[in-house]
Amino acid sequence: MDVIEEKRLDKKGYRLHVIPSKKYKTTNVVVKLKAGLERDTITKRALLPYILQQGTNKYPSARELRTALDDLYGAVLGVDGSKKGENHVITLRLETANEAYLSTDEQILERAVEMLSSILFDPKSDGNSFDASIVNREKQTLKQKIDSIIDDKMSYANMRMIDEMCKDEAYRLHVHGYTEDLEDINEETLYHYYQKMLAEDQMDVYVLGDVSVEKAEGLIESAFAPKQRASSAESKKTIVEQTIEDVNTVVEEQNVQQAKLHLGYRTNITFGDPLYYALQVFNGLFGGFPSSKLFMNVREKHSLAYYAASRIESHKGLLLVFSGIAPKDFQKARDIINEQMALMKEGKFTEEELKDTKDLVVNQLLETMDHPQGLIEILYHQVLAETDVSPDQMIERVKHVTREDVLLVGEKIEQDTVYFLTSKGGSRNE
Amino acid sequence: MNKISYDQLKETLYSEKLANGLQVFLLPKPEMAKTFGIFSTDYGSIDQTFVPLGEKDFITVPDGIAHFLEHKLFEKEDRDVFQDFTKQGASANAFTSFTKTAYLFSATSNIKENVTTLLDFVQDPYFSEQSVEKEKGIIGQEIEMYNDQPDWRSFFGTIQSLYENHPVQVDIAGTVKSINEITKDDLYTCYNTFYHPSNMTFFLAGNFEPEKMMRLIKENQDAKQFEPVSELKRRFPEEPDRVAMKKNVIEMPVSVAKCMIGIKEQTDRSSDETFLKEELLTEMLLDYYFSKSGEYYQELYEADLIDNSFQFETNIERSFGFSVIGGNSTKPDELAERVKQMLHGLKEKKLTEREFTTMKRKKIGQFLRAMNSLEFISNQFIHYHLLGIDLFKVLPVIEELTVKEANDFMGNWVDEDRISVCQIVPEQG
């Protein structure tokens, strides 16, 4: 396998990360813009990714923009917003075919970088506001997105779990924003926020593919040069530790066939923490893999569920359990999950299970790094946590996790909230 | 062992058909950390009526049995195979589609051990009454999960509106009722018939040494006993050309309605080459008109008939084929009418040379991007192989497609009898 080498360069107003690699048949250029999660700006930040894909001053409609991308051997553009701890990150991704595999001499990467730059810095506008009809139409699209979350029960239950668990923290904010804000957003107010975002967000640019550091640097510099930016704002500090007095249990009824049981825990450990790698192993043993306690007990032993698993929120310090069960099995499933967590805290896992799980976590990391977008996400963790751990070091740290480390993680984990979405009348079965 | 090099894609493929009939393909990719292996049988949810191995008469088995069998193959008398993979640092999985059941692993270490585990567990079934009963609870929850998903319901509702008799209209997992009828003997009957090595393909892609790997697989297979190769007889009911229902409306507790338009694709193709070209053209035309750069997408979007959930897909196999277009809509009836008009209007359209060049470029880019993924390569290779097509020769076929071929195909693609509509609407009252 190829060694991953990331070269970081501090540029005026942004940081450039170049990862030369011959592994892929495509080249990826990714721009990330980060700001604190705030109630006042979240809906605008949720809306901007939609607006930016609707046209630039050079390609003034979505169709013209998309046709230009298609002509660039089907370059794929994606723009979205996500929560990373209590920061909000807007990501622009452009993936193009590597010229080496095509019967052409065209300079595809150059054109792709220019295009990405104009999507970010030169969207369709008159210099003071966006296009009114675009903004109105995209507000409608965002509204439909927000309205339809309730139709996907797993996402809905996740969202409601966080609503309840993090009521007083910025992390509660919905990544798609709020319908009630849309009325006050117009082409001018949104454009002003967009300029503020360009000026103040922390910006990171990644180039990954069969390209040298010098070439990538030259291309990005010339495409980003006219955009003078102030130096980046600091990361927002995420609230991690919370005092939990009682476990909060929330039950909601809807017209569903399957009930969703979600449990939220505070891990009090985030990405930059020395115990982070032990937390990954803890999660692997508890609910991260088909060999885990949750899968083996909730599913295989008691056949209560098709899925019962857990995952961690690396930058917020949460561990979340999710499972789909019959409405009548609430009590039974919750007891089994609680029992598995108690066993984890007592260290009831074998040396062999510990070793196997470490291998699985390593395997998962290596596999993610084989995928171009996956590798960029792993590297961006360093920016979010303001750490400097190379992919090889991450793997070494997982390999060095001991039983004692996992027990220390167990001491820090606390249950916070139980959320149960069940059928109409389903809560009477408790 | 055969070796073929594909210069444009910079790939080398090794292959061999073993004495017991198993077809093996190896694709070394030393630049990757990961290796992905897939062991697939030409047996899916549609294979419900067949002559069991060593018998004479056709039988029909309960809905959802291929999927049930997939679940149960992981469980052995003394252990769960997931744990074997876990001990070897691999993650394992499986899936059942309309036409295939596949078992797979991915790993970055212990490749030989994981290959052996994959071959051995699939070729050593253990079904007991008790474990079959236990699985009914788990699969029952899987079915309920899908029942609550409007996307899945609208997808299947569309297929049901297109197909009257063909078992493609039966949900892959079956129903809570149909899986309750499944017995361990049914599982053995299906297993013995469809899991013979001559009905199976093994594909490995990633970081390994091909000669040694082929030797290991051969030795593994030579040490096992199988019945002699015999012809597999399956039967599908007669299916009319026209759709089963013009409109299928399903009530569900949704906040936003969904509207899908289905096309029953023609499957009477003269050759494998025609099959590939027509599949490519179907995908390219849908993309050209209904992706975000498409004329029709833009029109529907501006008229507020669709949102970002709008999508399309095509699935063409030997005995059936369909395309599905649609998504969330606040005006599902208007959307259905507009899309139907658009599809009918394609007969009158002619693509220009310039337009078709852009379409081809996009398709080439999509293909190369997909070739980054070992999962895509492996799955798609097997899919095409069973249809007599070589995945690594798709790129030149795309490059050689002509605008005349595209226009001829478009002129005959869709007709009135082959279009249906499926809507998910909020419950009344």
From TrEMBL, chain A:
InterPro entries with a match to the protein in the record: Metalloenz_LuxS/M16 (IPR011249), MPP/UQCRC_Complex (IPR050361), Peptidase_M16_C (IPR007863)
An example Gene Ontology molecular-function term: metal ion binding
Protein name, per record: Predicted Zn-dependent peptidase
All residue ranges annotated as the Peptidase M16 C-terminal domain in the record: 184-359
Transmembrane segments: none
SUPFAM superfamilies assigned to the protein according to its UniProt record, in alphabetical order: LuxS/MPP-like metallohydrolase
From TrEMBL, chain B:
Gene3D superfamilies: Metalloenzyme, LuxS/M16 peptidase-like
Peptidase M16 N-terminal domain segment(s): 64-171
InterPro entries (alphabetical): Metalloenz_LuxS/M16, MPP/UQCRC_Complex, Pept_M16_N, Peptidase_M16_C
Domain of life: Bacteria
SUPFAM superfamilies found in the cross-reference section: LuxS/MPP-like metallohydrolase (SSF63411)
GO MF annotation terms: metal ion binding
Every Peptidase M16 C-terminal domain range: 182-361
UniProt cross-references to NCBIfam families, sorted A to Z: YfmH_fam
The protein, known as: Predicted Zn-dependent peptidase
Species whose genome carries this gene: Sediminibacillus halophilus
